[in-house]
Task: inverse folding
């Protein structure tokens, strides 16, 4: 028995030894795997950190410096870079973008970066790639809508006779000043409602015939040389005039226009949430075929109808005089009547050759719409006496919101934009075809803050609005003159300035009925109890109050300013980057001295044709503004004696103004509005800041 037990014990020893060997090996292998797994977890976390650092390196190396540059323009071919190697760290990919912040509805630039790092799994069986993302947004949390008044210079601009005699230059611009009749925020009742921006990059000048009084802080500029542009006081004392808290504040020059002006147009054009109306699509000049450039006027009417509100758009094609009746490229003497309703015998020769430029109809059109005439010796454009220097030209020349159909009218003034004056409005009215099916308009209902870009053309605005809007135009559009023949030499290039025209009241729907005041819609210090509506008008050229019947044309109309005929009510913040906010006084019905001031070079010769004569006065009422004005030069709202318009009595334009800041603009900017920033000409970077980094 004992012998058998020993034999059994000897036989089981080997299996037990083998079993314990396997158990020990398993424990050891498990320990080794645990060590490897812990090591992998450490390596994985390191790889995650490296991927994150690589993404941040992508922001720093591939985006940060580029996005800050003033001259940065989005470019799909260069804005994205993939798998850029970083020594011993891994890779990153970077994509730059320009767009719109969905919360603030302001322009932003930014970058999306992805960092990559790799880590090997247990025992090197496979390799895992780790990815981490970083996003950078740059923006500017300021707006030019902070200002009730901002000018680049207090000198005159924006319209005819803004200069003294002599070649137009900065030094020959006429001086504007502030007098006893100039009041700001006069419709604020009681204490000031909010802080108001009131500033010029130039120098404020007060009148010698009576001083203004400002109860708001007036900002004066310290220029790059360290010189402070203190006000030039002609009468009274500084303590009488400047009564704000503080009275004066010394600041740096504001950049006009800021970089954001070009940015806002790009992001609108590239957006599906905002609107671009192209006014360049009929610029089709071709010297070989004889086709001509055709211009486009855009009209925007804002509307509120019960619970529905938005805007309606029309676009008309038009020809700016001088233009021909037909598109011809080669002229012969017998064709003059066909082209311009003058016979060749009516037109003096130039160099012994008949030339259509000397025809009476050509010269009349050129004078009325360009304030130029023809040198009958050379055939070149010339200025109309007594303007021998080109004072009435360029951004400070004649501008128009409407153009006549000149031929076959029996002497009647007929607009190109409504030739038959009756519905249905179709092709004879020169509407673009895409507007005919909708009864002459396209309607856009409001759903969110909206920016509207009119590309390459002027725009007319009017109506009642609810919501937040910005309307923006370019500066100018060159085009070939329609009335031109190949026999007259190289095609003549004219310029259409892309002005914004206010053709009737532009009213916030929360305004008090009857008075059109926004006083009861002003917010408190926490931005409560105000209006949710605002409007911004941003022109690359001028913003004009048009000479329309609704705006008080013909000396306030035919019924002494009844039926809402007279005055202009504007609830908007206005920017005119080149040149001014002004009134269309060069189109007038003033008939003293045989209409001397209603004809070129003082008037465009159209006012009396449209409305008839108003004798020795063409006063249109008062400009009532709730918002603000930013302009390069200070535009005229009235012309009278003394000055180039040496009227024996009366006025041309608006003899009163009531400018009030809308404090709601402190609470919410108009969509995509240009930023309020200083402009260091020597710096190549934007003064933007990081608005998001995650």
Result:
């Amino acid at each position: 028995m004992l012998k058998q037990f020993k034999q059994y014990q000897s036989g089981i020893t080997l299996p037990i030894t083998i079993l314990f060997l396997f158990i020990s090996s398993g424990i050891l292998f498990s320990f080794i795997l645990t060590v490897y797994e812990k090591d992998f977890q450490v390596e994985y976390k390191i790889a995650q950190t490296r991927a994150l650092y690589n993404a941040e390196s992508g922001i720093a190396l591939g985006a940060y410096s580029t996005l800050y540059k003033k001259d940065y323009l989005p470019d799909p071919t260069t804005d994205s870079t993939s798998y850029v190697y970083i020594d011993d760290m891994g890779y990153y990919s970077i994509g730059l973008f320009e767009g719109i912040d969905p919360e603030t509805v302001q322009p932003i630039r930014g970058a999306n970066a992805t960092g990559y790092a790799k880590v090997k799994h247990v025992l090197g069986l496979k390799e895992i790639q780790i990815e981490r993302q970083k996003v950078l947004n740059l923006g500017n949390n300021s707006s030019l809508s902070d200002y009730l008044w901002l000018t680049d210079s207090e000198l005159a601009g924006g319209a005819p006779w803004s200069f003294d005699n002599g070649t137009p230059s900065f030094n020959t611009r006429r001086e504007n000043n502030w007098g006893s009749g100039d009041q700001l925020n006069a419709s604020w009742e009681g204490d000031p409602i909010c802080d108001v921006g009131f500033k010029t990059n130039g120098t404020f000048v007060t009148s010698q015939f009576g001083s203004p009084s400002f109860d708001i802080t007036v900002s004066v500029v310290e220029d790059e040389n360290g010189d402070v542009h203190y006000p030039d006081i002609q009468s009274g004392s500084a303590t009488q005039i400047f009564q704000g808290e503080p009275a004066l504040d010394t600041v740096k020059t504001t950049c006009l226009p800021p970089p954001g002006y070009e940015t806002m147009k790009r992001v609108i054009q590239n957006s599906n949430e905002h609107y671009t109306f192209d006014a360049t699509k009929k610029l089709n000049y071709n010297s070989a075929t004889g086709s001509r450039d055709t211009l486009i006027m855009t009209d925007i009417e804002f509307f509120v109808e019960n619970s529905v509100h938005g805007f309606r758009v029309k676009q008309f094609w038009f020809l700016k005089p001088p233009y021909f009746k037909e598109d011809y490229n080669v002229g012969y003497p017998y064709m003059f009547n066909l082209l311009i309703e003058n016979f060749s015998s009516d037109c003096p020769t130039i160099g012994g050759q008949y030339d259509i430029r000397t025809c009476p109809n050509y010269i009349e059109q050129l004078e009325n719409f360009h304030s130029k005439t023809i040198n009958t010796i050379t055939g070149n454009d010339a200025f109309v006496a007594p303007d021998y220097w080109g004072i009435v030209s360029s951004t400070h020349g004649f501008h128009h919101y409407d153009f006549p159909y000149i031929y076959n009218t029996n002497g009647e003034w007929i607009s190109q934009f409504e030739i038959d004056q009756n519905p249905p409005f179709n092709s004879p009215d020169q509407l673009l075809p895409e507007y005919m099916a909708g009864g002459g308009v396209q309607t856009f209902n409001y759903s969110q803050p909206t920016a509207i870009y009119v590309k390459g053309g002027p725009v007319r605005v009017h109506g009642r609005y609810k919501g937040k809007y910005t309307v923006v135009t370019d500066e100018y559009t060159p085009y070939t003159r329609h009335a031109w023949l190949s026999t007259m030499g190289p095609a003549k290039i004219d310029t259409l300035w892309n002005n914004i025209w206010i053709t009737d009241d532009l009213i916030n729907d929360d305004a008090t009925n009857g008075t059109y005041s926004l006083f009861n819609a002003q917010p408190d210090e926490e931005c409560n109890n105000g209006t949710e509506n605002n409007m911004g008008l941003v022109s690359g050229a001028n913003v004009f109050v048009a000479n329309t019947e609704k705006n008080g044309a013909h000396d306030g109309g035919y019924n002494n300013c009844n039926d809402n005929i007279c005055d202009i009510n504007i609830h908007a913040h206005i920017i005119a980057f080149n040149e001014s906010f002004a009134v269309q006084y060069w189109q007038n019905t003033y008939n003293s001295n045989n209409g001397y001031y209603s004809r070129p070079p003082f008037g465009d010769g159209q006012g009396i044709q449209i409305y008839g004569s108003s004798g020795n006065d063409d006063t249109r009422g008062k400009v009532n503004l709730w918002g603000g004005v930013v302009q390069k030069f200070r535009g005229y709202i009235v012309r009278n004696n003394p000055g180039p318009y040496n009227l024996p009595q009366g006025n041309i334009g608006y003899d009163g103004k009531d400018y009030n800041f809308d404090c709601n603009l402190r609470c919410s900017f108009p969509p995509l509005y240009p930023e309020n920033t200083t402009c260091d000409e020597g710096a190549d970077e934007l003064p933007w800041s990081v608005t998001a980094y995650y």
About this structure: The chain has two domains: 22-140, 144-201+254-676. The first helix runs from residue 2 to 67. The longest strand covers residues 107-120.
